[in-house]
């Protein structure tokens, strides 16, 4: 019943059908998507009162000074572990990053023997708690072009605790 010629016809019919569907899909894609939808103005616009003045309210949370006043150096010591991969706490002992002993209140680029990126030097002069907070929140956003590859610390409480810990080291 099924010989070689019948099998060849069935296979040809299946391939031909798939080819028709493939070409039909390609034509439909060209008709509906390549027509430049979005390149022209909308035909009918429904006016909405206050539609152009959309404002997003961003909750920035409490001011850093208030959070820093309640910060715990003991909690910051636990957060230090992430920093210790690149930084040291001993004065003069640089790692991948500069040493952080006495960093709070210290001039930027004051670590002897460490080559700072120009982007960081251009942004700030002294590491105040507020400046450290902004830097730790997102180093790349704070100083675009900085060599520090850390993504940042999201919670303001964690940043305040870490800064309080670093500030407590040098009395």
TrEMBL record:
Residues 71-170 form the Cytochrome c domain. It comes from the Bacteria. Keywords: Electron transport, Heme, Iron, Metal-binding, Transport. Transmembrane segments: none annotated. Signal peptide: none annotated. InterPro entries: Cyt_c-like_dom, Cyt_c-like_dom_sf, Cyt_c_1A/1B. The keyword Electron transport applies. This is Cytochrome c family protein.
């Amino acid at each position: 019943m099924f010989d070689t010629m019948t099998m060849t016809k069935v296979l040809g019919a299946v391939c031909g059908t798939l080819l028709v569907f493939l070409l039909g899909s390609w034509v439909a894609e060209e008709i509906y998507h390549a027509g430049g939808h979005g390149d022209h103005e909308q035909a009918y616009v429904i006016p909405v009162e206050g539609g152009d003045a959309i404002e997003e309210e961003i909750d920035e949370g409490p001011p850093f000074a208030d959070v820093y006043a309640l910060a715990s150096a003991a909690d910051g010591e636990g957060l230090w572990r992430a920093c210790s991969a690149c930084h040291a706490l001993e004065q003069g002992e640089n790692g991948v990053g500069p040493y952080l002993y006495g960093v709070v209140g210290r001039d930027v680029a004051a670590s002897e023997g460490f080559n700072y990126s120009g982007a960081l030097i251009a942004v700030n002069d002294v590491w105040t708690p507020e400046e450290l907070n902004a830097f730790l929140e997102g180093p790349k956003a704070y100083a675009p072009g900085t060599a520090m590859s850390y993504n940042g610390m999201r919670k303001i409480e964690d940043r305040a605790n870490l800064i309080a810990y670093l500030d407590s080291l040098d009395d």
